[in-house]
Design a protein that fits this description.
mainly alpha, 4 helices, 0% strand, globular
Length: 70
């Protein structure tokens, strides 16, 4: 049996992968902007909960973006 990655984590990591070519702080700002504009509040809440539970499996840029969103 394989563990499934929650969709919010997968999508956030995909966004980070697509914006990872930008310098660190700028990438985090762009990720935060994308999540803030396009993600449903329930999705953002679940992402915050995952970050609060531990950042295992999350791109560090996603963690930085969540700090900016809060």
């Amino acid at each position: 049996m394989t563990a499934t990655v929650p969709s919010e984590l997968r999508m956030a990591n995909d966004i980070a992968r697509n914006l990872g070519h930008l310098p660190g702080e700028r990438a985090a700002e762009e990720i935060a902007g994308h999540i803030g504009r396009f993600w449903d509040p329930r999705m953002r809440t679940r992402l915050y909960e995952y970050v609060d539970a531990g950042t295992d499996g999350l791109d560090p840029l996603v963690v930085a973006a969540v700090k900016l969103l809060r």
